[in-house]
């Protein structure tokens, strides 16, 4: 695992207090207050990083892995690491991202994450909450190994950190030429919609979302959203992906709506999608305020 020297940049605030970060753990860290830097491991840094065992399961909370496993066995969607909001503030982390480095052999679509507050899924990366980051490589040769590097960043009011981590992963799936999706679903915070490859025609798409007034609206992509067969990048529709509750395959008149949709609202995160006809979709939204309608 690469280690980088730490850059701590203190801003104009002169509040008292102490924060900790792992010496060498982060590429950079910036905190707008006086800071005491203590030498701690990855699990106890500003953005605490905990790693799974080689089989993808996590050890007990009081015995965390401070470094990635020598080899991580990947079988479909597998735990990659867990990031915990350890900053000494009650403010949430407003921006969190994990992406492959430029020379990595995976794409952003292979990474996904969800925020958790203890045992409950959360819509925000709140203080003390964690992001469970997963890697999904379903089309590979069983036993094949690859080295990957990911770039991690987190930013909130008055603080930011970034880091790079390397992993060696070993594929446990036989190559099948399939996206790996068995059901349609909206994926967590990474802004993806996944469905069974070849089940629908993906040449014309429309997203249905709730606008800032909680009214139903629709929009077509501003650039090609199909990252690969069976995977759609919701961020290419020009609206915040968490606001999207349904995807329409226009040429087929088929809709996929979040199963959590009820009474003109829905919960986010990773949710399965229900396939509907146009009439069934219209029935679902008939009592909602809307600026556009397919009905």
Walk me through what this model shows.
This protein is an all-beta fold and 295 residues long. The chain has two domains: 8-171, Immunoglobulin-like; 185-285, no CATH class. It has one helix at residues 278-285; strands at 8-10, 28-31, 47-50, 72-74, 76-85, 95-100, 111-117, 120-122, 130-137, 145-156, 159-171, 185-187, 192-194, 205-210, 216-219, 226-228, 231-233, 244-249, 254-258, 271-277. The strands form three sheets. It has a nine-stranded antiparallel β-sheet with strand order 15-14-18-19-20-12-13-17-16. The longest helix is centred in the C-terminal third of the chain and has 8 residues, at 278-285. Mean pLDDT is 79; it is low at 1-25, 33-40 and 175-182.
Total E-strand runs: 20
Low-confidence stretches: 1-25, 33-40, 175-182
Task: Give, in order, the helices and strands.
Answer: EEEEEEEEEEEEEEEEEEEEH
Distance between the termini: 55 Å
Per CATH, the architecture of the largest domain is: Sandwich
Radius of gyration: 21 Å
Strand content: 35-45%
In terms of structural class, how would the helical and strand content be classed?
A: mainly beta
CATH class of the largest domain: Mainly Beta
Architecture blueprint of SSEs:
Layout: E1 8-10, E2 28-31, E3 47-50, E4 72-74, E5 76-85, E6 95-100, E7 111-117, E8 120-122, E9 130-137, E10 145-156, E11 159-171, E12 185-187, E13 192-194, E14 205-210, E15 216-219, E16 226-228, E17 231-233, E18 244-249, E19 254-258, E20 271-277, H1 278-285
Parallel strand pairs: 1-2, 4-11
Antiparallel strand pairs: 2-11, 3-5, 5-9, 6-10, 7-8, 7-9, 10-11, 12-13, 12-20, 13-17, 14-15, 14-18, 16-17, 18-19, 19-20
